[in-house]
Each structure stands twice: as structure tokens, then as C-alpha cells.
Amino acid sequence: MTKKTSTRWNDIELEAAVDAYLGMLQKERVSEPFNKAEINRNLREGALSARGKSSVEMRMHNLSSIFIAMGLRRVEGYVPRDNAGTNIRSKIQAILESKGVSTSTSYVASTDIKSPNQKTEESSTDFLSPPPPGNKYPKSVTSTTTTYERDLKVRDWVLKNAKGKCEGCGQDAPFLLTDGAPCLEVHHVRRLADNGSDRTTNAVALCPNCHRRCHLSADGKMFTASLYERLNRLIIEDPDVNK
Ligand SMILES: [Zn+2]
Ligand SMILES: [Zn+2]
Questions:
Q1: Tell me, what DSSP letter sits at residue 88?
Q2: Which tops the pLDDT comparison, 77 or 124?
Q3: Cα(194) to centroid of ligand 2, in Å?
Q4: From the CA of 230, which ligand is nearest?
Q5: Percent helix, strand and coil across the chain, each to the nearest 5
Q6: Structural domain containing residue 226
Q7: How far apart are CA 51 and CA 44, in angstroms?
Q8: Domain boundary among 82, 98, 114
């Protein structure tokens, strides 16, 4: 086995690692397969000739942790391992910024000096932790949802009949849509998923707030009951009776 150095990584080495990491990210983004072992080997045949395989591998894991902390997406195959010092982190941030990758966090050297109104984490109950970095490039997920075919005539009739006012709260639609139509949504009082029918006797025009109230609120059931009372055209449907 050849003796590999354990000295601090220099800027050229760090940049080579960052380049390789960005390359893998790019491949992931376009769903192009890549071979991590091969990338590791190529690095050690080039700028990282002074480093061992596991040292390069550790650097990639460590880049994942740094990327995430900076609000960037990480390479899937490299679980974050947070073992880099502030010095390395700020160097990597500088390398990324020199490549036009904008990062959301600044790494500043830690200090013992606290301003008078700065609270320690232990003593404060209202300590607000720093905002989470999130993902600059959120992954897309494909999900399957069931949709029901709706009769556009029913929808249009319900919307027209509402005359721009929400049938839940009686208020004007909160704003107009780009086509000039009032922003109202057609809601099926007995949901289609619960065997509700797609007829004007089961559909109402609601403002987005009232619509969400039907679906999500703690008093959704009561609110739905009030719709039946309010609107004479609605007919309470029995879920067990086939429409
Ligand atoms: Zn409303
Ligand atoms: Zn709805």
C-alpha cells in the first residue's frame, strides 16, 4: 500500500473534489447514471494523487453535509457526514461562489463574545433557530392521484349561478383570475371520492378560504352542514345509495 498523506487539503484538492461533486449533482439532475468508484479513481489519478480512496470518499460525504448546510442539493449517494472544520467550509463556500453557485449561509468563525441581549440556547425558551436551508433544487416526485371526470357544464352553471360571490361566506371572490373571472372554486359537498355526484345539487362555488375550510378545518363538518341549510338547491346524498 502506498503511503498517503494526511495533511490538510489544499485549495486545488478541494476544488477538484468540489468539481467532481458538482459533476455528480448535474448527472443526478438529468438522471444520467455515474460510477462513484470511477470518479474517485479518476480524482486520485489527477489532482488528488496524494489522497487515498477512503479519504476521497469521506470528502464527498462531507461535501454533502456542507452543501445541505448551504441550502444546496446534495448527491443522493453521499449521506452527509459533518466532519469538516469551519475553515474547510468557508473555503468550499468560496470555491462554490467563484463558480457562480450561490449559497445561502455564510460561515463565519465562531466567537466567544456575546452581545448583552444575545441569549444562550439553554437559557432561552424563545430562541429562534436559524432558518432551515431547504433545497435549492428540490427533487421531483411522481405521484399518482385519482381524478374524476367532471361535467364542465355543471361547473360553469355553479360558477355562473354564484354571481361572483362565495356560497360559503357570501363574500365577493377575493380577487379576479387572469381571465377576469372571479376566483371561486367548485366544491362537491359530498366528495366525489365518497361517491358524491357531479350535479348542481351537490356542487357549490366557494372562495379559496371556504374551500379549504370544507376540506381541512376543525369545523369542516359543521361548515358543510351549514351549506346544506344555506343553499336550497343542495340535496344531501346518501353515500350508500348508488348515484
Ligand atoms: Zn367563502
Ligand atoms: Zn372541494
A1: H
A2: 77
A3: 12
A4: 1
A5: 40, 5, 55
A6: 152-230
A7: 7
A8: 98
Identify any residues that bridge with 172 across adjacent strands, giving them in sequence order.
165
CA of 212 to the centre of ligand 1 (A): 9
Q: How many domains are there within the chain?
A: 2
* pLDDT tens track for 55-100: 999 999 999 888 888 778 889 888 888 777 778 888 888 888 888 7
Spatial CB neighbours of 190, under 8 Å, sequence gap ≥ 6: 196, 197, 202, 236, 237, 239
92 with 168, same domain? Answer: no
Q: For residue 186, report the distance from its CA to the centre of ligand 1, in Å.
A: 11
- Which residues contact residue 78 at a Cβ distance below 8 angstroms, ignoring those fewer than 6 apart? 21, 60, 61, 63, 64
At 152-168, the pLDDT tens digits run: 999 999 999 999 999 99
- CB atoms under 10 Å from CB of 73, counted, come to 17
Report the candidate in 77, 5, 80 with the shortest Cα–Cα distance to residue 44.
Answer: 5
167 alpha carbon – ligand 2 mean position (Å) = 13
CA nearest to 166, candidates 152, 150, 197, 187: 187
Q: How many CA atoms lie within 13 Å of 94's alpha carbon, on the beta-carbon side?
A: 10
Distance separating the N- and C-terminal Cα atoms of the chain: 77
